[in-house]
Amino acid sequence: MATKAKKKPASAKAKASNGQEKKRVWLMYPPQKITRPILWELGQKFKVVTNIRQASVTEEIGIVCLELDGKGAEIAAAIKWLGKNGINVEPVEINVMAS
Amino acid sequence: MEKRMQSNAGFMKALKCRECGREYPLAATHVCEFDFGPLEVVYDYALIKKSLTRATIESRPNTMWRYRELLPVAEDPTVGTQVGFTPLIKADRLAKALGIRELWIKNDAVNYPTLSFKDRVVSVALSRAKELGFTTVACASTGNLANSVAANAAAAGLKAYVFIPSDLEQGKIVNSLIYGAQVISIKGHYDEVNRLCAEIAGKYGWAFVNVNMRPYYAEGSKSMGFEIMEQLGWRLPQHTVVPMASGSLLTKIHKSYQEMSKLGLVTETPWHMHGAQATGCNPISQAQKAGLDFFKPVKPNTIAKSLAIGTPADGFYSLKVMKESHGHAEDVTDDEIRDAIKLLAECEGIFAETAGGVTVGVAKKLIASGKIPAKDSAVLCITGNGLKTLDAVMGHCGQPREIKPSLREFEALLAAEKQSPVNA
Questions:
Q1: Which of residues 283-312 of B touch A (CB under 8 A)?
Q2: Which domain, by its residues, includes A76?
């Protein structure tokens, strides 16, 4: 098993003691989706708390930096649903897979 | 260890959010807790000015570490101490072919030890990781970064995990496996693989070079800019053409020019940062050409795999740098990339990977359109070696001509060539 640093590095996904998780993502909306209240719909469909930390909406693109708080499986399902609905979902680091 | 590092930060002051400016301790962390903006290293420039002179730099070994005060390590580097100080070549034949007065090639195709500029960022990330007490390092990569992490970790005695997409070419995998790294191949679409890697990086207490070590890692790119200025005789280039994947390299070379100017190591003269992409993955160049300050994600489809990032993390910042420095972006097709690789090889004897073809091809377009004026001088950044992307040019650079072991056959071939030269 790998040795850890004494202080655990900050995590993009923190797990709380009650089984709740927090995940940070960037959402990118194509122009045709900008007027749809997708985050409201997400709140209705999934038991996930959404917390917007940054946002920018223009005619060309909508960009939202979001924290999702809930059970791991519920967050995963919500992210999958966003993808199915044409929203580009990236981790807070955006491109982790480098060249 | 953490406590020691905070009291002994070398020439670093803090990590700072690029969005809101909040400061954080110099730990293995990369995102602002407030607005999730990326963190960047800030330095004590007053302190650096006292110890860093041209004479000091020139007295040090020919590696990227001769600028160590401007690199994010608290003490002397321990990983990749031989990296950098690659040749800057005056490319007169290529200048003539592209129609520009003066042209220079910064050739990281021969960077030590893994033949790409990634050795710069990795040596910084791993040196800093060791200072912070890590013994396991990791990365997610489709090529050059994986090779560099595997090699540099091996030489430093660090355990390395390398995550790769399952459809990666065999040659690229061997280039990481040979160093004894733990190579994990992940099946799935790019988006899923990318998100899983972010999750793994968050879950395990490793030094993930391009995630929790990113503020340090990215700073390593500045060394390419420092070297360009010193090798030009301590002056700023007028134009610099840089390939863009995430866009980080372009922003960091710009930062290196700002720092050297601020420290009085070069006289500040106008410089222009130009970004190069492949047409098959051009989110940043598309946005720059349309005059936008944000990019739209694209699905990559290009032979320039090392630039195939459809959602570039530093896209926004690289657009800002090009705007500030009155630079431009352009993109080139796969055929133009191959032609440019051949042109560079035939003119200067340098075999670059596909990203190098992108840089040369874009420079050609920018010069032809007058965006880089023909009377000016430009530096082209070549970031990787052509031996790594042989597949991209195979079948596009001719065939050897075969003869029997007979002098008569050879002379007949020469006579035929004289009548209709092959490389006219």
A1: 292, 294, 296-297, 305-309, 311-312
A2: 19-91
Number of structural domains (chain A) is: 1
**Model pLDDT for residues A6-35, shown as the tens digit of each residue:** 444 444 455 555 678 999 999 999 999 999
Weakly modelled stretches of chain B, pLDDT under 50? 1-7, 424
Which domain does B232 fall in, by range?
A: 88-114+223-393
pLDDT tens track for A33-65 = 999 999 999 999 999 999 999 999 988 899 999
Residue B62 backbone phi and psi in degrees, to 5: -80, 70
Is the residue at B423 inside a domain?
Answer: no
- What's the CATH number where B344 sits? 3.40.50.1100
User: Shortest Cα distance from B62 to chain A (angstroms)?
Assistant: 27
Rounded Cα distance, B99 and B70, in Å = 36
CB-based contact, B186 to chain A, within 8 Å: no
- Distance (Å, whole) CA B415 – CA B417: 5
Q: Locate the chain A residue with the closest alpha carbon to B201.
A: A11
Pick A5's closest partner by Cβ from B35, B205, B313: B205
Task: Report the complex ipTM.
Answer: 0.82
Q: DSSP string covering chain A, please?
A: -PPPPSSPPP-SEEE-TTSEEEEEEEEEE-GGGTTS-HHHHHHHHSSEEEEEEEEEE-SS-EEEEEEEEEEHHHHHHHHHHHHHTT-EEEETTS--SB-
Task: Indicate whether A55 belongs to any domain.
Answer: yes
Q: Which of B34, B121, B195 to mutate to test the interface with A (most CBs of A within 10 A)?
A: B195
B130 part of a folded domain: yes
CB neighbourhood size of B215 (10 A): 26
Task: Report the domain count for chain B.
Answer: 2
